[in-house]
Amino acid sequence: MIDKIESIELEGMLPHVFVSESIPLSDVWKKTVAFRRGSRYLVEAASGGGKSSMCAYIYGARIDYEGILKFNGIDVSRLGINDWQRLRRNNIAYLPQELSLFPELTALQNIQLKNSLTNHVPEGRIEEWLHELGIDSRRDYPVGRMSIGQQQRVGIIRAICQPFDFILLDEPVSHLDEDNNRKAAKIIIEAADSLGAGIISTSVGNPLMLDKTVNLRL
């Protein structure tokens, strides 16, 4: 049904949990918003503002909202499970805030598990990313023994080990310092630009260092 996602449109969307509440002024909730492939977006909000919910809705992991979500003008409520599986494999990359890494597996194994399903990235490039992000010395450590900042860097590499039209990054650098934030942003931007993809990143105060962004407030 959908080959390439050129646009993601939110029309009057609002999490069910907010329906009976008075929500702050927002650029997203209860508005008409379009995310365009090839553009970069920074969505900022206070904790509890719905950043993780928005990402989960776009990824199809949750449907507890009112309003309409569309891909290329197609209402996603028309999509079946096979459609979503194909979109998650080929069109939408996602790094959730909780990372969803396997703690008993090593950093490299977590990344290879994803890459073995997509065959998207050469092994040598993965090694380069590990080095660039300063975690090559931890490549064979169980992720559960790594710091949260190190885990975030593993998650970033894993997330880009697939083709995508959009990448959703939910607070991807919340535990990274400025230097590692900049390095992570460079890798993400290069991966997205090579595919002509869009970047949607959220933050509560330590945003991914993207340039040329469209800034939105939840």
Layout of secondary structure:
Layout: E1 7-15, E2 32-36, E3 40-44, H1 51-59, E4 65-71, E5 74-75, H2 81-90, E6 92-95, H3 107-118, H4 123-132, H5 148-159, E7 166-170, H6 178-195, E8 198-203, E9 213-217
Parallel strand pairs: 3-8, 3-9, 6-7, 7-8
Antiparallel strand pairs: 1-2, 1-4, 4-5
Helix pairs in contact: 3-5
Please trace the helix and strand order, writing H or E for each element.
EEEHEEHEHHHEHEE
Spans of at least 5 consecutive residues whose pLDDT stays below 50 are none
Give the termini separation: 30 Å
Shape: globular
Which structural class matches the secondary elements? alpha/beta
* Radius of gyration, in angstroms, nearest whole number: 17 Å
Total beta strand runs: 9
Q: Which percent range fits the helix content? A: 25-40%
Number of helices: 6
The biggest beta sheet is recorded as: 5 strands, parallel
Query: Would you tell me the overall average pLDDT?
Result: 96
Strand order of the largest sheet: 6-7-8-3-9
Assembly status: single chain
Content of β-strand: 15-25%
Distinctive features:
6 helices, 218 residues, globular, alpha/beta
Structure, briefly:
The chain has helices at 51-59, 81-90, 107-118, 123-132, 148-159, 178-195, and strands at 7-15, 32-36, 40-44, 65-71, 74-75, 92-95, 166-170, 198-203, 213-217. The protein is of the alpha/beta class.
Write up this protein.
By secondary structure, the chain is α/β, with parallel strands linked by helices. The protein has six helices and nine strands, in the order βββαββαβαααβαββ. It has helices spanning 51-59, 81-90, 107-118, 123-132, 148-159, 178-195; strands at residues 7-15, 32-36, 40-44, 65-71, 74-75, 92-95, 166-170, 198-203, 213-217. The strands form two sheets. It has a five-stranded parallel β-sheet, with helices on both faces. Strands 2-1-4-5 form a four-stranded antiparallel β-sheet, with helices on one face. A hairpin with a 2-residue loop joins β4 (65-71) and β5. α3 (107-118) runs parallel beside α5 (148-159). The chain is globular, with a radius of gyration of 17 Å.
